[in-house]
Specification:
alpha+beta; 16-stranded antiparallel barrel; seven-stranded mixed beta sheet; 33% strand
Length: 1221
């Protein structure tokens, strides 16, 4: 019987095996994707995973694809040329690339946070270095996506059944000032456009397996998911090194607890990370044909949420702890990788391998994925549409009298007037992709002639993504910007071609069309059906290929035979400035190339002409157009209000591509332009407007353009002088000779020549003579190659010449006797550079590759890349408390920018404040100078509290009395004195978080007995003060040291992070009446929120202070209302030592839209507790205050709080700008 059973089992197994073999032969693998994450480290010069893949996979099989999921180079990505660690980084990449080197299969790299330099400044450069190295290998089967540090997504079809979609998830988590932003050449410039692009890709491939590859997982149960064991609490140092078993109980718990509460941005609990996951997951949720793959966590995991599988394959070179958790199907700590196998039938499997496997037939885990479902197209239904319709730009701009006064009459009638336009017939046209603009809906389409065109919606859309980060979420600003669109002439683009044609400037030829709700729009139908739009060429001009700004930069950097036609660029920019078109940032240009024999000469092609004739005639918008606010919005008129400010968006363009043109070139160019701007041309151009709107503003615009001819040449010469104050001249990665001649008469001639490989001088590349009265600074950037810099001549001159050598072994020869500070050389100390000549110079040599940083284009968010204007801006302040009454103030902030000064060169703040109750005045001045002495910043503070400076003094001790029935009430306890304070510190910033500062300080105080007559301060028999010395003038000198740890996400309205400031000061008395004393003060504030919107914020602060020595009463440690103990008078308790604790619950209730008082608002509750100690006093009392109030945030740059606080001595109202801490 047993024998029979065994035979039956054997037959069944044999039959199953035959069936499997047959099935695998009839349903072969058509695509196999290998997923390797966090592979950026070698072990003893080897890479086990790469070696396994080489040994066990046939990489000549084109169905195999290798994807590296980020963190491709540890510890901090690919350094720049000449930097330490470059060779090691190249070896790591070479090892990974070697898997497919010389094979037919393809490999793709996506970046991770370590490739972005772990989120530190300079990460954008590091990730571009990595891309440049990979693409520079010249291997057709190896590539890096997304390009240029852009976020993607980028869709890469693999065969006809799979699509790889690459995204850079670190872009989303990177600080906005350190990544390509709205002015970049990225297809997607903000989070919303990323989501839309991903949605388009998902819609485009409904019947293919979509593999969404990025570095960061959506779900994980490893360290980045908050998994900490008891071991990490007891032996926390083992996370740094496996052998550091040093017990640190309690202390060891601080890191995992604080990381869970504060949220490292690289962890799934962090609000920004959660926002990324939620927005992207909303797109892919419910699509069974999508698999999300990621690394980041050094583990192997498979999770499933709804119908989507989530693969974590980050164990390419490291492994860390992991556990099974919600949605987990598998979790393993071993080094290894994952694969996705797609079969001809549409079924697929996800498999996981460790290094113990002996081949692809030995996965340790396999999961079957839902088979692909054939897609049925139901949209190909052709409808009949009319030939024309009446279309309106935007009816929402109609406004009443007050709104027109406040925001301007603008072109509201033009926007709201129906215009007859033809209906766009989709026959022969194919939709391709949506545009990435923040305000304009645009769709790229292919025409019947094979050329590409763009449909650009007339109506503009303003949401948070269109606003600067600091203004996002603010209802007023969003409304202002939205209504500000009415200041743009809706059909201005139609009038540009005649003017451009006359100047020989390439241009599009837009026409108005109406796009119906046509099913042939396909996946774009919902957003682009019923669209009133401009139809124009995607590549204006002759229809040949054009280049974007990044392409141009690459061409200029890679070969000095490529150049820009600067006279053509000048004509294009003069047309902009004549029409007062302010929106001409880097992405508003394409570049047309002409063969010049050895290289390309590129001329600009302007596009997206939305802002000619932009008007500004409202009260509020006029203020917004001021030089200290947004001068580019000054508005169209015959004479520019501020021609320098008008050019702000093109500030980098003008300084890069007009840098060889002389004053004569500008004058000749402006006069030539004006000669062509005839009455008939201007009138003809404006008559291109739809006839229905010509009766409104057309005649006024014509009159302004004619009037501009009177002022235009003068404005251009002023603008020339403005952009010539500092001039940058660039070499390339080839060799150049920079010849600098300081000539008699205070002028400098800079000439750049080609250099051959053997050092022979070739053709002239650049030449311009500068006058010191106009140009105060010249910057020479050698970039790559072994360049030569020769400074000679008989002149001295006031102009500073900065030379940034760039990578390569450069030769410097200085033969000029000008002061050393006039010639400054910057280069790497690790290179073989040579210095000759007897001319003095200052050398700034460093091992840090940022010394060769090129300040050229402002692609990266709000960073200091590119040129920035100096700004003088007014400031106002006010507050209310029972002691000062209404406290008002005014002043200004002056910000300047300079070479390698980040975020600014200097920031000066001057303010004057006045208390209406005490009649006291306060004058304050501060200066912050970045890198004033080497890497040290200079900080200067000055304060004058006079006349009538007033504080409360109730005596020293923790239980001092406050007699509310004193003859003069609170005035009895007020002490008046004059105080002058000044300190100067040198500050060292250690990364983004830590600051150290120290320097000398001075203090002078004088009490006048007449000012304090009949006050408590004068009753020394009651307060214990020394009456003989009380009214003596006192002066002190000493030093002050400060340590600050600050990682708050927002300095104005923090939602997450820590702020810890500690100060120590020691003073010596400068007279017999002045005693020596010292002070220590430290307070630590912690902020916790649970989402990026900061709907609920928990803020808590603990502080301690102590004064040492025989101090004066005003040098005591104080507790009081406006500083640390709400519910009590200012300076209520004074002693040798003070301790306090504050906790706030800040709740945002809503955002509201109102022109009188707009913004977000909420409530807050608080509790404060504290006490002081005085030598000889016995007290166990603690003082407690509590209360609540409301807050509003008008522009997200301000917080106004109003609350009522209750203490044991009664209650009081407090109003102030800003939080208590």
């Amino acid at each position: 019987m047993m024998r029979t059973v065994l035979r039956i089992i054997s037959l069944v197994c044999f039959a199953g095996a035959i069936s499997f073999v047959g099935y695998s032969q009839t349903d072969p693998v058509v695509q196999r994707m290998f997923l390797v994450g966090d592979a950026g480290e070698l072990k003893d010069g080897l890479h086990p995973v790469c070696d396994w893949l080489k040994q066990h996979v046939d990489w000549n099989d084109t169905s195999n694809v290798l994807v590296y999921l980020g963190d491709n180079i540890y510890p901090a990505g690919m350094p720049s040329d000449g930097a330490a660690g470059l060779d090691a980084a190249r070896k790591i990449l070479d090892y990974q690339v070697s898997v497919v080197a010389g094979k037919n299969a393809k490999a793709f790299f996506v970046p991770g946070n370590h490739d972005w330099k772990q989120g530190r400044p300079g990460g954008w450069q590091q990730v571009r270095n990595e891309e440049a190295y990979i693409t520079g290998l010249g291997m057709a089967n190896v590539d890096f996506f997304p390009k240029g540090g852009c976020p993607g997504p980028v869709a890469i079809p693999l065969g006809n059944k799979m699509v790889l979609v690459c995204m850079d998830s670190q872009w989303w988590l990177e600080d906005k000032g350190e990544r390509p932003g709205l002015e970049s050449g990225c297809d997607c410039k903000n989070e919303k456009s990323i989501v839309n692009a991903l949605r388009d890709i998902v819609s485009l491939y409904p019947d293919r397996l979509i593999v969404l590859a990025m570095h960061h997982p959506f779900y994980t149960h490893g360290m980045h998911g908050g998994y900490y064991t008891l071991k990490q609490h007891i032996f926390p140092l083992t996370d740094l090194h496996s052998g550091l078993y040093i017990p640190l109980p309690v202390i060891g718990s601080i890191y995992p607890i604080s990381r869970g509460a504060l949220g490292n941005v690289q962890d799934t609990r962090n609000p920004r990370y959660k926002e990324m996951r939620e927005q992207l997951e909303e797109v892919i949720r419910g699509h069974s044909n999508i698999i999300h793959v990621a690394g980041h966590e050094h583990t192997l995991q498979l999770l499933q949420q709804d119908s989507v599988y989530y693969v974590v394959s980050g164990a390419g070179s490291k492994n860390t702890r992991v556990k099974m958790g919600a949605h987990s199907l598998m979790a393993r700590e071993n080094t290894g990788f994952a694969t996705i196998e797609l079969h001809a039938s549409g079924r697929s499997e996800i498999r996981f391998f460790t290094m113990e496997a002996q081949g692809l037939d030995q996965p340790f885990y396999t999961a079957a994925v839902t088979p692909l479902i054939p897609h049925v197209d139901t949209t190909a239904i052709v409808r009949n549409f009319p030939d024309s319709v009446m279309a309106v730009g935007d009816r929402e701009f109609l406004a009443g009298g007050f709104k027109r006064w406040l925001l301007g009459t603008n072109y509201r009638k033009e926007w709201a007037t129906p215009v007859k336009v033809k209906v766009f017939d989709m026959t022969g046209w194919t939709p391709l992709q949506r545009g990435g603009g923040s305000q304009t809906r645009s769709l790229r389409i292919s025409g019947p002639n094979g050329r590409q065109y763009v449909l650009r919606g007339v109506k503009k859309y303003v949401d948070d993504q269109a606003l600067p980060d600091v203004l996002q979420g603010d209802a007023l600003v969003r409304d202002l910007v939205s209504d500000g669109v009415s200041a743009s002439y809706p059909f201005a683009a139609l009038s540009v071609p005649p003017l451009a044609q006359a100047l020989g400037v390439p241009h599009a030829t837009p026409q108005l069309v109406y796009v119906p709700d046509d099913p042939r729009l396909g996946r774009f139908r919902a957003d682009y059906g019923n669209l009133f739009a401009f139809l124009e060429e995607h590549e204006p001009g002759n229809g040949k290929k054009t280049y974007n700004m990044w392409d141009l930069e690459y061409l200029l950097k890679s070969d000095n035979d490529n150049n820009v036609d600067q006279r053509a660029a000048l004509r294009a920019r003069m047309l902009d400035l004549f029409m007062m078109d302010f929106d001409r940032h880097e992405d508003q240009w394409r570049w047309m190339a002409v063969d010049n024999g050895k290289g390309k000469t590129l001329s600009p092609v302007p596009r997206d002409r939305d802002q000619p004739f932009f008007i500004n005639n409202g009260f509020l918008t006029y203020i917004v157009g001021s030089a200290w606010a947004v001068p580019a919005l000054q508005g169209f008129r015959a004479k520019a209000r501020n021609i320098d400010g008008l050019g702000y968006s093109a500030r980098n363009f003008d300084r890069n591509y007009l840098n060889e043109l002389t004053e004569k070139d500008w004058r000749d160019g402006a006069e030539a332009v004006m000669a062509l701007m005839t009455d008939s041309l201007i009138e003809s151009a404006l008559k291109q407007q739809p006839s229905a709107v010509q009766g409104y503003s057309m005649d006024w615009i014509i009159a302004q353009l004619k009037g501009r001819r009177k002022y235009f040449v003068g404005e251009m010469m002023h603008y020339y002088a403005f952009i010539s104050k500092t001039v940058s001249i660039y070499g390339s990665d080839k060799r150049e000779l920079f010849d600098v001649e300081r000539r008699p008469g205070d002028s400098i001639t800079v000439t750049v020549y080609k250099l051959s490989k053997d050092g022979q001088t070739g053709k002239k590349l650049y030449s311009r003579t500068f006058i010191s009265a106009v140009t105060g600074e010249i910057r020479l950037y050698g970039q790559g190659g072994d360049d030569q810099f020769h400074i000679h001549g008989e002149g001295g001159g006031r102009t500073i010449v900065r030379i940034v050598g760039g990578p390569g072994s450069d030769d410097y020869r200085n033969e000029v006797k000008a002061p050393a500070g006039k010639t400054r050389i910057y280069d790497l100390s690790t290179e073989k550079n040579s210095f000759e000549g007897n001319g003095p110079e200052r050398k700034f040599l460093s091992r840090d590759p940022s010394v060769n940083q090129i300040i050229r284009m402002g692609y990266v968010g709000n960073s200091t890349l590119g040129y920035h204007y100096n700004i003088l801006a007014p400031s106002l302040t006010f507050a209310y408390n029972p002691d000062d009454g209404l406290f008002i103030g005014a002043g200004f902030r002056y910000t300047t920018h300079g070479f390698h000064k980040d975020p600014y060169k200097t920031l000066q703040i001057l303010s004057a404040e006045h208390s209406l109750s005490t009649k006291a005045y306060a004058f304050r001045y501060s200066l912050e100078a970045t890198k004033a002495i080497g890497s040290l910043d200079l900080l200067v503070h000055g304060k004058v509290l006079a006349p009538n400076n007033t504080i409360n003094f109730f005596g020293l001790g923790n239980e001092t009395a406050y007699d509310k029935h004193a003859p003069e009430g609170i005035r009895y306890y007020r002490a008046r004195f004059v105080q002058y304070d000044a300190d100067l510190q040198l500050r060292k910033k250690l990364g983004r978080v830590l600051q150290l500062a120290a320097g000398p300080a001075f203090e002078h105080v004088n009490l006048d007995s007449a000012d304090n007559k009949d006050r408590f301060i004068n009753h020394t028999e009651l307060n214990g003060l020394n009456k003989a010395m009380l009214y003596r003038s006192k002066s002190y000198a000493g030093g002050k040291a400060t340590v600050i740890i600050d990682n708050r996400d927002d300095k104005i309205n923090p939602g997450r992070g820590i702020y810890w400031e500690s100060n120590f000061a020691a003073y010596g008395g400068l007279s017999h009446a002045s005693n020596n004393f010292s002070q220590l003060q430290s307070d630590l504030a912690l902020f916790i929120s649970f989402n990026t919107r900061k709907n609920v914020v928990i803020a808590t602060r603990a502080g301690y202070g102590k004064t040492f020595g025989n101090y004066e009463f005003y040098q005591a440690q104080f507790l009081g209302a406006t500083e640390n103990l709400r519910g009590y008078r200012k300076f209520r308790f004074a002693g040798d030592e003070a301790v306090y604790h504050n906790i706030d619950l800040r709740i945002k209730l809503a955002e509201f839209r109102s022109y009188l008082f707009p913004g977000a608002f909420g409530i807050h509750l608080f509790n404060d507790v504290g006490r002081v100690w005085l030598a000889g006093e016995k007290s166990n009392s603690w003082h407690d205050g509590y209360g609540g109030g409301i807050w509003v945030s008008p522009l997200r740059q301000f917080i106004l709080t109003a609350n009522y606080a209750q203490g044991t001595e009664g209650g009081m109202a407090l109003i102030k700008l800003g939080w208590q801490y």
